Amino acid sequence: MSKTKKHPILLVDDEPEILYSLQGLLRREFELYTAESGSQALEILRQHPIHVIMSDQRMPEMTGVQLMHRVKTEHPEAIRIVFTGYADIRAVVEAINNVGLYRYITKPWDPDELIEVLHQAAARYDDIVEREQLLDDLHAYVQRGQALTRELRQQDSGAQDARVHLAEFETQGNALLPRLERAMSGGASSVGGASSVGGATA
Questions:
Q1: pTM of the predicted model, to two decimals?
Q2: Which CATH number fits domain 8-128+191-197: 3.40.50.2300, 3.40.47.10, 3.30.70.1520, 3.20.20.60?
Q3: Angle at 4 between CA 129 and CA 16, to 5 degrees
């Protein structure tokens, strides 16, 4: 992503003053969207290409973990972060594997660390997008190579050694394609390994 373009990040909290504080802290670094409920967050996700979503855990309509379950299913490319008070940590930790959280952040947080975590999450999003594009390109390349192989063999004008090499290339391509497809199917949703960040209040 160009350095002049900010990553779009969605902040979710049912307390407007928290959202206001986060906007003041992050607006120079990211393109910000805010939501005061899980349902509002899902609507924003349907309308805008969000790269990172960070949600409070304790909300009345839908908890942060419940929201992230929906996000993982409906928008798996978005990097998922939950921030929580110490009383809710156990629920968040227990849900890490199922939700695929990138991080969980404890309240109160350190402002500089929070900004750094969000930059890391945005970089993770870029890495995943780049990886998926590479896999798409490799997939197309191998398919094209296989098509060329079939065309050359049908011409029946090459030497026997060339035909053997072409056959080997096609065999390798047949073995490579399923591996690429498996890698692609595990793509953006595999963002586990969550860890915590905490510190002074923002």
A1: 0.71
A2: 3.40.50.2300
A3: 85
